[in-house]
Amino acid sequence: MNDIAVDVLIIGAGPSGCVASSYLKNNGISSKVVEKSKFPRFVIGESLLPRCMDHFEETGLLDCLMEQKFEIKAGARFLKDDIVCNFDFSKKHTPGWDYTWQVPRADFDHTLAKEIVKKGVDVSFGHEVTAVEFDENGHSTTTVKTEEGNEYKIRAKFIIDSSGYGRVLPRLLDLDKPSSLEANSAIYTHVKETERPEGVEGTLITFDVVKDEVWLWVIPFSNGNTSIGFVGPTEFIESFKGTNSEKLKEMLKISDYYYDRLKDLDFLFEPHIIKNYSKAVKQLYGKGYALTGNSAEFLDPVFSSGVTFATESGVKAAKLITKELNGEKVDWEQDYTGYIMKGVDVFRTYVSEWYTGNLQKIFFHRPENPVIKGQICAVLAGYVWDETNPFVKNHNRLVKTVAKVIDMENERAN
Hints:
alpha/beta, FAD/NAD(P)-binding domain, D-Amino Acid Oxidase, Chain A, domain 2, 36% helix
């Protein structure tokens, strides 16, 4: 291939790269997307949040997704012991979308990628970034290798790294740093449910808390398949012996609620294991580049924040680059890092307090407080930048405070 010159190089054709490239295309900015994988390809992160619907709508990618008729996700259910906690997105504190989808990511990502190609975005699949150099102006020269082993260079004024788990620039520029979250792992697969329960029960996304630090996800898709997986401390996952299939079969016995429904179903693929998945970086941007989605920060999947951060950061980076290329001054520290990290910090608090048990106390306390529940529901819907919500603005202390009040009530009751 011949060398290429564009305004923006986007690494990765997942949701973040697609919304970024679509926004740039809509605003007359030239881009090139390179993707190491061939689509459709399997990836985890199958539960979306309502907030990301805003991004698909804004970038002109909503209609193609609507046509796929993915399973509607109107809320989420959490189970623990005999207590059920249902969150209904229509009852959240923050105005916005009241639903999103549960999606097989291979189909979802492929739909987005096909749509940006249809819009005229230049996308190359099976192309891998192997090196990158920046000059003093932040302009870059990136070396890309094709499947056949041929190399070519892309010169760009800006790079958006949307490579997700590939974390291309964090690896090449030594930007990785340890996550502040505990070391958890996940084991997961898909099953075909030929006799799925009728009605809402068969469609509900559920988080079954089988131990304080261990939970099972069940995500039904509209194609009849269901994603299942356990998350817990790495040592817990490793305590089960045998093949990955044998491990997961044994773990399913822990779930009183789902064991009978799932025990006789064949796994559609050998379960995958991801160990110690939480990631962080030293910085979210530099001269000539921005990191988006999982390339920047990957949190625990308990609240399904992955795709929403991917699309939030992808759109935000594309907007700021468009401003800069149009001669406007951009404060990347405030307008990008400051903004994105506000949302990341809120979710990080919720993840941390989930595993301390404080958030679980609030979820499963009875009677429920509808005001508090609506405010927490807005967080779970991805509206983590809405500071009219006290559970966003005061996230650092409010979860702990409410949990402490519950403890005091329980002490008085006893």
